[in-house]
Amino acid sequence: MDYSSIFAARAADYVRASTSAPTIRAAEFAAYVDCLQLRPSERFLDAPCGSGQAHLWLPDKVAYLGLGPAPDFMGACSATGIPAVLGDMRATPLQSAYFDVEGSLAGVHHEAQRRALYANGGGC
Q1: pTM of the shown model
Q2: How many C-beta neighbours within 10 Å does residue 106 have?
């Protein structure tokens, strides 16, 4: 089983939980963004982005784009105005896009074929 199939089933529950307790993972997101060392004007790809909560912790003037394979997560991003694209991380629809930093807080550990994911130079 991989991220796409796991979160096709779990995404709605995750979104509901994170909406009802939006600061519960504040320290986790702050540490993630701090680790990325993003600078103003950089372009950041967050994948899989879940409901795009990392976007809320970014420094000013960092361009964010989330990528994720779960439609419920992408719907949550859209509903809150967080830029995100629905797509498979192994065959990203962003082939010609350029990012200064790509990151993943959580989700990749659900992927059964991580080696293939990392080998995909156009992926995350």
Answers
A1: 0.81
A2: 13
